[in-house]
Design a protein that fits this description.
Order of helices and strands: HEEEEHEEEHHEEEEEEHEEEHH
Helix content: 10-25%
Shape: globular
Number of helices: 7
Length: about 300
């Protein structure tokens, strides 16, 4: 891949067909080299190394001694099964069973310190545990569901309904206007963000809506602009809790943007030179989205010459 955003590039073979075989999953759980990463309420356990912090990997046998019945299968790392466990509750496990193992960090912080591959694996685990917590009961009949396929499926024994992890697609776009003396790109600001933070526009796809239609609708709703063309840039898995960010460059027919104050506090047009100052941190007034966010990559790619 030419561009690989944070939380993508997962090195694991997810074994989508094999994991549906209960006997195969059982054999992976017995594998003598099976390994396991550790989460606590969505945070991941990391430990220091000379080159920075890394995920803590325990033997699966050791992990099961720490946490019972809260594990899931992530995939195969060169034929070695990888699992994840998650502690629940308000008490930090590093004050008890995980003492001296490292520290638990929020995944946004982890994204800034882990390698791309480890961030992707941690994101996978968080998404699956988040989904598991929200789907303990069947949406069809209300009865309790049971884990299957190593955590990738939940089954209602009462009515037979199967439930699978869902992904919510989000369009995230950089509106660009080319009708003036030089091209400019539009950024928006939500009121809850840190002072000076500006970012790309974004919104969820609605049912029976294409990516292009969602892009045009969101730009119209949030900034009052009409989209004339849409160019795909890249995508990003976003495990907060389970989204797929579809990155776009959207050309618009006007530079008369008007923020919809129900979603955006303000909007601003930037030239390429101003956008470069934003992403390299030298802009005197504005702050870019963090580098691990696809919004940062959209702004950067346009700022340095991509149409």
């Amino acid at each position: 891949m030419v561009l690989q955003n944070t939380f993508s590039g997962n090195p694991l073979d997810r074994s989508g067909d094999l994991r549906n075989d209960a006997e195969w999953i059982a054999s992976q759980r017995r594998h003598p080299r099976a390994t396991c990463l550790v989460l606590w309420e969505g945070r991941v356990l990391v430990e220091p190394f000379e080159d920075g912090e890394r995920l803590v990997w325990l033997s699966f046998e050791h992990a099961l001694d720490l946490v019972k019945d809260r594990d899931l299968f992530l995939g195969l790392w060169k034929d070695i099964p990888a699992f994840a466990i998650e502690f629940e509750g308000s008490i930090d496990p590093t004050s008890g069973p995980c003492e001296h193992m490292g520290r638990f960090v929020e995944l946004r912080e982890a994204a800034a310190i882990l390698s791309a591959q480890e961030a992707a694996m941690a994101g996978e685990a968080k998404v699956l545990f988040d989904w598991r917590r929200r789907h303990g009961f069947c949406s069809a009949c209300g009865k309790a569901t049971e884990q299957a396929s190593g955590g990738w499926r939940r089954v209602c024994r009462a009515c037979g309904t199967e439930h699978f992890p869902r992904v919510d697609p989000v369009v995230i776009m950089l509106p660009v206007y080319k009708g003036g003396d030089e091209p400019v790109a539009l950024l928006g600001r939500q009121p809850q963000w840190p002072k000076g933070r500006m970012s790309a526009l974004a919104g969820f796809l609605e049912p029976a809506e294409s990516i292009e239609e969602a892009c045009a609708r969101e730009v119209k709703e949030e900034a009052g602009l009409t989209v004339t063309s849409v160019k795909y840039h890249s995508s990003q898995p976003w495990p907060f809790p389970s989204q797929l960010m579809v990155g776009l460059i959207a050309e618009v027919d006007s530079n008369e943007a008007v923020p919809d104050h129900s979603e955006l506090e303000a909007v601003i047009w930037l030239t390429r030179a101003e956008a470069r100052a934003l992403v390299d941190g030298s802009h005197p007034d504005l702050i870019a989205p963090p580098p691990f966010a696809i919004a940062h990559q959209l702004i950067s790619s346009w700022a340095y010459g991509e149409d």
